[in-house]
Structure formats: structure tokens, C-alpha cells
Amino acid sequence: MIKVLVYGDSNVWGDNFITKKRIPDDKQWSNILQKELGSNYKILQEGLPGRLAGNDEIEKKYKNGKDSFISIFRTNAPIDYLIISLGTNDLQLKYNKTSKEIINDLLWYKETIDNMFLDKDDKSKYFNNKYPKIIYILPVNFDYKNNASFIFDKNKELERQEIIKYFNDNKINNIYFNDIDLFEDGIHLNYEGHKKIATRILGELNNE
Q: What ranges make up the beta strands (E) of the chain?
């Protein structure tokens, strides 16, 4: 069985702006992906609303992505694929982070896997001596002009583009969107957006 760990935020969890609840399981992109891939794959969904790539949340520390990652990885290991879907929350105005800081936080996940893989015991126990393929889903477009203008602004959109450019220039495996479908809040994926994410990931896995 091929195991895929998805570590992300509310767009992995399936936040629904309209109902203020979680969208149905079968509408979440990780579960759509599971259905399409079938029983030979196991999608391990680890999404949390508000989760950051970094550790910049002071009041609700459970949202700090780095703090949770190693334990979640080890709990689900060994895996064949690691999908990191983070960075959007780090772009929020309230955290006042630069694109470089967010890039470094995102790269931390790969570096952490690299370091664990170098450990002889970890390599055997948590990896079965096989390095997982890492795929980043970079922050998707958001409506900074209208509905989400209190969270993001034009500069945050520029930073988002800088993050995408860095990953592409450095040939770091990633998926990005500039026109994904969102709920009216201008932040969260709607049902069609979830379908599009699943389709792109499916294409990535089928090309292996």
C-alpha cells in the first residue's frame, strides 16, 4: 500500500465559510483523491484550520505547524509521499512575515525530513530506508481586494507570488494555483476548488 501524508491547514481540513462548519467528507480533496486512487493508496489527512508553516502563533499555539509536525510524521510513518499544504495563514497581515521568512519556514519541513533520514535508526524505523517524495501545495490565490481585504492586502499577494517564484526557480516540487475556486470569503476552497486540487495531485501521483 502506498501511503500519502497530507499536512496542511483549513483547505486540507475542509472549512466551509457559508455554514461555518466542515464540508462533507466526500467533498474534501484528500478524500476525493482517496476515492480516485482506490485501495492501493492510503491518504492520511492531517489538516488544521489556522495552521501556520512557522511557529508565530502566540495565543493558540496548537496552530504552530513546526511544533506538531515531527510527532504527526512519526505517528503515520513510514510514508511514500509527503504533501505540505501550508503558508497561506503565514501571509496574514497580523503575523507581519516576509516572503523570505515564510519560504524558510516551508523549507524547514524538507530539511527536517532530510535530517531524520540521515539518522541510521530513524531511517530504518520511520522510513523503511526509503526517502518519501515531497510535494508542496503553495498558498493559493485569495481575494485581497474585497472579501478578504481585512486579512490580506496587495503586498501579501506580491509575497505569495515571490514564494511561488522561489520554489519554481529552485525546482522544488510544487503545485500552485492563481485562479482556484473559493467560497465567498475569498479564502477557503469551495467544492470546485477541492476537486481541482484533487485532480492536480492525482496527475502528480499518476506521473510517477
A: 2-8, 15-16, 21-22, 41-47, 81-85, 133-137, 174-175
Residues 6+ apart with CB under 8 A from 68: 48, 51, 62
Q: Can the peptide bond before residue 139 be classed as cis, meaning omega within 30 degrees of 0? A: no
Q: What is the pTM of this model?
A: 0.97
Between CA 62 and CA 67, with CA 64 as vertex, the angle to 5 degrees is 90
Per the structure block, which three cell numbers stand in for 75?
A: 505517528
d(CA 56, CA 68): 13
Place of cell 493508496: 41
Residues in the chain: 208
Domains of the chain, start order: 2-206 (3.40.50.1110)
Q: How many CB atoms lie within 10 A of CB 137?
A: 24
Q: What are the cell numbers at 186?
A: 475569498
pLDDT tens per residue across span 62-118: 999 999 999 999 999 999 999 999 999 999 999 999 999 999 999 999 999 999 999
Query: In this structure, how many other beta carbons lie within 10 angstroms of the beta carbon of residue 206?
Result: 9
Cell of residue 164, nine digits:
511561488
